[in-house]
């Protein structure tokens, strides 16, 4: 199978850190899982290592969420396959920072 | 002509303040890393344009940034701080065992001789070392592995290793301080560590004279007298003349001996500075008057310095990393407040002026005197 071009939207601070625009496109070899996608993001943008997942636990940072296709995939297992629309590049995988007031 | 560069870490980014040796006109660059907490920035003394910065966020974790051009451009370097072996536990606030968890880097202390080498003090308390300019970090686990480790407990700000002081006469000797475990010293380059808290008395722990458990806020020394240490403890200003083996109180006539910062004049080893804070429940200056106190006798006798500082209605704090000195002939002293002001003096404290007034809350101030 050919690698997928996954569209990912990063939160403001991570876009600044990586020096990218609103959306990036990442090639991910199948199977396209949450873990494989974040591995690919970190490989292409090393400055983002540890910003989405805690490097000690490998778990999603608690103040970040993963949304796609109108659904919350934050609590899916890291090795679950991402939705076909995301894998096909028709829908964007959103990495969203929790809002905070004050 | 000499110049001065002031590195200011704040709750919402980093700022770099620069002036020529007159220290009258200042440029302000920043915010760098806007929106991120910058706990500390410090430059290599042997490569002054190399600056390390600790950048962190409750959302995105810890980053380490490095500049090799004096802060004009930055590159992210290694941000993996993995505890050596099985981390074990320390005491939680309720006294129960709690696993060590990395949270952030409080302090980066570059080597005095090698720009690629630096130490990092982190929360939960541990010390890490890089020898490749920050690309990778290795724990000096003899500190955390000290037999007292399971007794260490966080202060209200977390269990942080916030102070790292190198002995300029002995590259293998380093002093560190942890809230709230106390002060420690290594004499073998970080392999083994010993607590150096004899003489500290802390009423907020079950045994006020315990070997560990003291909330040390800051330690400073003068390079010409590396055996003499000055400490601002949670309460009490302390002094040691034997490299921390024994401490005695030098709070003297201070209006309150609670505070966070302490520093030493660049050319007068017995001239020291503190900023008294009302108490441990009200972290602001007594009577709403911001005052630096100076002792020219190595403690004991203190004079209030307020010329140019707020006379009334001032309720800011000055955090433990937020004071530094330059080494120009007329020593400059600099400190930042949680109200976003950075104050400076060109005459060792007789008169003060604000360099900037409206930054985010200041977490740290470091000063470089450049040739």
Report on this structure:
- The complex is a heterodimer of chains A (102) and B (371).
- In chain A, 22% of the residues lie in helices and 25% in strands.
- With 102 residues, chain A is α+β, with helices and mostly antiparallel strands.
- In chain A, strands 2-1-5-3-4 form a 5-stranded mixed beta sheet.
- In chain A, a hairpin with a 2-residue loop joins strand 3 and strand 4 (71-72).
- The model of chain A has no long low-confidence stretch (mean pLDDT 93).
- Chain B is an all-beta fold and 371 residues long.
- Helix content of chain B is 0%, strand content 40%.
- Chain B has strands at 3-10, 13-20, 27-32, 37-43, 51-57, 61-67, 75-76, 89-91, 97-99, 104-110, 118-123, 126-130, 138-139, 160-166, 174-179, 182-186, 194-195, 216-221, 229-233, 237-240, 248-249, 259-264, 272-276, 292-295, 303-305, 323-325, 333-336, 342-345, 353-356, 362-370.
- In chain B, the strands form 8 sheets. Chain B has a 4-stranded antiparallel beta sheet, with no helix packed on it. A 4-stranded antiparallel beta sheet of chain B has the order 4-5-6-7, with no helix packed on it. A 4-stranded antiparallel beta sheet of chain B has the order 10-11-12-13, with no helix packed on it.
- Chain B is globular and about 50 Å long.
- The model of chain B has no long low-confidence stretch (mean pLDDT 97).
- Classes of the chains: A alpha+beta (102), B mainly beta (371).
- The A-B interface holds A 11-14, 16-17, 46-47, 49-52, 54-56, 61, 63-64, 97-98 and B 34-36, 57-63, 75-76, 79-80, 82, 101-102.
Q: Report the count of strand segments of chain B.
A: 30
Largest sheet of chain A: 5 strands, mixed
What are the segments of chain A in which pLDDT stays under 50 over at least 5 consecutive residues? none
Helical element count of chain A? 3
């Amino acid at each position: 199978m050919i690698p997928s071009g996954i569209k990912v939207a990063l939160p403001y601070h991570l876009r600044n850190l990586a020096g990218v625009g609103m959306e990036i496109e990442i090639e991910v070899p199948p199977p396209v899982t949450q873990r494989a996608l974040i591995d690919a993001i970190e490989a292409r943008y090393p400055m983002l290592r540890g910003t989405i997942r805690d490097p000690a636990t490998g778990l999603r940072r608690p103040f970040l969420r993963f949304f796609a296709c109108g659904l919350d995939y934050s609590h899916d297992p890291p090795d679950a396959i991402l939705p076909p629309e995301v894998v096909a590049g028709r829908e964007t995988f959103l990495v969203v920072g929790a809002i905070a007031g004050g | 002509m000499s110049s001065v560069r002031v590195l200011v870490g704040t709750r919402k980014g980093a700022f770099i303040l620069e002036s020529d040796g007159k220290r009258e006109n200042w440029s302000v660059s920043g915010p760098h890393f806007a929106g991120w907490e910058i706990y500390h920035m410090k430059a290599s003394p042997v490569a002054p344009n190399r600056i390390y910065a600790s950048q962190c966020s409750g959302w995105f974790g810890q980053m380490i940034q490095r500049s090799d051009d004096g802060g004009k451009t930055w590159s992210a370097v290694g941000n993996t701080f993995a505890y050596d072996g099985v981390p074990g536990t320390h005491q939680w606030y309720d006294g129960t065992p709690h696993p060590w968890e990395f949270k952030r880097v409080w302090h980066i202390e570059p080597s005095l001789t090698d720009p690629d080498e630096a130490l990092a003090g982190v929360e939960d308390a541990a010390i890490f070392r890089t020898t490749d300019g920050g690309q990778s970090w290795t724990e000096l686990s003899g500190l955390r592995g000290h037999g007292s480790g399971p007794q260490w407990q966080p202060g209200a700000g977390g269990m942080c290793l916030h102070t790292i002081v190198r002995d300029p006469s002995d590259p293998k000797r380093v002093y560190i301080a942890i809230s709230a475990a106390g002060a420690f010293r290594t004499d073998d380059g970080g392999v083994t560590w010993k607590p150096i808290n004899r003489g500290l008395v802390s009423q907020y722990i079950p045994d006020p004279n315990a070997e560990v458990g003291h909330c040390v806020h800051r330690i400073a020394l003068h390079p010409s007298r590396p055996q003499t240490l000055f400490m601002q403890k949670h309460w009490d200003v302390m002094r040691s003349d034997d490299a921390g083996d024994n401490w005695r109180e030098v709070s003297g006539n201070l209006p309150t001996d609670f505070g966070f910062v302490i520093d030493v004049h660049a050319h007068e080893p017995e001239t020291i500075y503190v900023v008294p804070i009302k108490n441990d429940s009200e972290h602001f200056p007594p009577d709403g008057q911001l005052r630096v106190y100076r002792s020219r006798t190595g403690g004991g006798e203190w004079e209030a310095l307020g010329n140019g500082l707020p006379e009334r209605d001032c309720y800011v704090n000055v955090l433990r990393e937020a004071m530094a000195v330059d080494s120009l002939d007329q020593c400059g002293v600099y400190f930042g407040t949680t109200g976003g002001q950075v104050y400076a003096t060109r005459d060792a404290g007789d008169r003060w002026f604000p360099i900037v007034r409206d930054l985010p809350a200041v977490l740290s101030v470091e000063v470089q005197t450049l040739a």
